[in-house]
Amino acid sequence: MFDINYSLLNSNDIIVITALNHESPLDNLKDVVARLKECKIKNKPVLVIFDLLCSNGNEWNRFVSLRFDGTKFMHQSFNVLSNDDVMPNIIDTQQSYFTQHPEIIKSSVLN
Asked: Where does the pLDDT of residue 91 fall: very low under 50, low under 70, confident under 90, or very high at 90 and above?
């Protein structure tokens, strides 16, 4: 299960996908692609940052990125991001999200 944060779609064309439990959205990219197309991202290239806090914990691989060309993910673009590589507004928004939804942490690997 995952959530797509549309509010972070900005001039840099970045979308954040948040894992909502211990299952990683990377394990089901077909569903992620379908959801991106549903939200009118079809045919528009974006950088997708996955926040895997709930599936990986607060580890070195919490954030990963993949380029989405508008129809599919470009697997060769896969990149593990350090916290320093992630824009501060994304970190702040994600922290706020988890603070507002503590029940998500209860169904994660952190519990």
From this structure: very high
Cβ atoms of 47 and 14 within 8 Å: the answer is yes
pTM: 0.89
Answer yes or no: are the C-beta atoms of 18 and 97 closer than 8 Å: yes
Q: Are 107 and 20 in contact (CB under 8 A)?
A: yes
Mean pLDDT of all residues belonging to the chain: 86
Assigned domain for 68 exists: yes
With respect to residue 110, please indicate whether it lies within any of the assigned structural domains: no
| Integer CA distances (angstroms), 27 to 24, 55, 90, 95, in order | 6, 11, 22, 23
Dihedral sign computed on CA atoms, order 25, 2, 40, 13: negative
Convert the pLDDT of each residue in 38-82 to its tens digit.
876 666 788 999 999 999 999 999 999 999 988 899 999 999 999
Pairing of strands 46-51, 14-19: parallel
Domain count, the chain: 1
